[in-house]
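Worked example 3 (structure in, sequence out).
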């Protein structure tokens, strides 16, 4: 049995040494608890080896199979830009397994302010996206879009398939070859803003482990315009 080099604290972001995804489907999970593995027993001590449980799923993974996840600066800037885009539409965020409201984003320092209600009083916390503190926005997957939402999006003369963005690259290549007349084929600002307003993950943050799938109904009463 492998022994972990260290045990990480609750709330720490980890990835698998193998590079594989967790049961959640994400490459990054957040530690919820440190436990003894129920199925992998250390023969010398006759107890389960150290393991982690997670906020994102119900799996139990050996601590020795996990490593500390360090977000790249590129990922941090992408997350920061995304938080700015969704800010006006009542974005919900996760911090250590608790749901917060995003209330402000400070550029270029990279600070975000999040709020939760405790005993009917607002508790406001400041976190740095460009350092170690990370909040994850709750976003809807593209597949969760309703037929009405898909129709409205398609009526904006953007992509024919709401689940496939590969032709964005093709359109960019067309512009380089044929000039700016093809620019109209790219997603327009108002179309992107529409996706922001319905909290859809069109940047692919969820698969990257930078966002969490929003529970059904989370944004039912959220504003759709500003």
């Amino acid at each position: 049995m492998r022994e972990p080099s260290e045990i990480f604290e609750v709330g720490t972001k980890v990835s698998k040494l193998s590079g594989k995804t967790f049961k959640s489907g994400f490459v990054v999970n957040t530690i919820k608890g440190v436990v003894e593995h129920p199925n992998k027993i250390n023969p010398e001590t006759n107890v389960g080896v150290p393991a982690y449980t997670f906020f994102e799923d119900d799996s139990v993974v050996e601590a020795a199979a996990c490593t500390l996840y360090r977000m790249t600066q590129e990922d941090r800037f992408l997350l920061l830009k995304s938080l700015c885009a969704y800010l006006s539409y009542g974005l919900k965020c996760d911090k250590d397994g608790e749901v917060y409201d995003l209330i402000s984003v400070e550029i270029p320092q990279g600070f975000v302010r999040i709020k939760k209600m405790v005993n009917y009083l607002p508790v406001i916390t400041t976190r740095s996206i460009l350092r170690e503190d990370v909040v994850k926005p709750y976003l809807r997957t593209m597949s969760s879009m309703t037929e009405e939402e898909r129709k409205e999006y398609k009526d904006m003369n953007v992509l024919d398939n709401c689940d496939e963005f590969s032709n964005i690259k093709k359109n960019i290549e067309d512009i380089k070859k044929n000039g700016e007349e093809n620019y109209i084929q790219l997603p327009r600002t108002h179309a992107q803003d529409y996706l922001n307003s319905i909290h859809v993950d069109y940047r692919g943050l969820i698969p990257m482990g930078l966002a969490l799938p929003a529970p059904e109904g989370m944004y039912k009463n959220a504003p759709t315009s500003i």
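Notes: The helical segments are 73-86, 147-154, 166-178, 189-197. The radius of gyration is 20 Å.
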